[in-house]
Amino acid sequence: MMQEVILYLFIGFSIMSVLVILLNRNVFYSALALLTCLISLSGIYGLLQAEFLAVTQLLIYAGGVLVLMIFGIMLTNRIAGKSFESKSHNWIPGILVTTSLLVVLVITFQNSSIKATQNELNTGNHIRNVGIELMSTYAAPFEVSGVLLLVCLIGAALTASSFKKSSHE
């Protein structure tokens, strides 16, 4: 019973943060609301016993991508000297596309015939195996992607820094 209450709280937090993202014009506050939504989704994954997805959600999305988004927004605000606001003029097409996508998803879900019983589910904890494979079999691609992300971050910092601007003057 307590798990259901916590699950509904996480769902409520994610829905409220999505509404803040949609209705707020300040991009920085929308990014913070996105962080709240991603953390809520991670909590939902944790309650549904998908621990690997929960940790991945926290580390990759909430920890990495969103921090870079907030860093970019703050850097843009510093350069421009004013807050960056977004304005939407496409409310009606957005509502039509969203509603039609919702209808398609609901119809597809109702017509799906995938029924998994508890015996068919593999309920073992495979996070250890994923970690072993990541650090042994896939160690080289993992390290190359880390170096590539580091080079991209350094390039973005140099592109936006005043060092590059003063070297051309």
Using brief descriptors, characterize the structure shown.
about 170 residues, mainly alpha, 2 domains, about 80% helix
Polypeptide structure, described:
By secondary structure, this protein is mostly helical. The protein folds into two domains: 1-87, NADH-ubiquinone/plastoquinone oxidoreductase chain 6, subunit NuoJ (Four Helix Bundle (Hemerythrin (Met), subunit A)); 127-169. It is built from seven helices and no strands. The chain has helices spanning 2-23, 27-47, 51-80, 91-111, 127-135, 139-160, 162-168. Helix 2 (27-47) runs antiparallel to helix 3 (51-80). The longest helix is centred in the middle third of the chain and has 30 residues, at 51-80. The N and C termini lie far apart (66 Å). The model has no long low-confidence stretch (mean pLDDT 78).
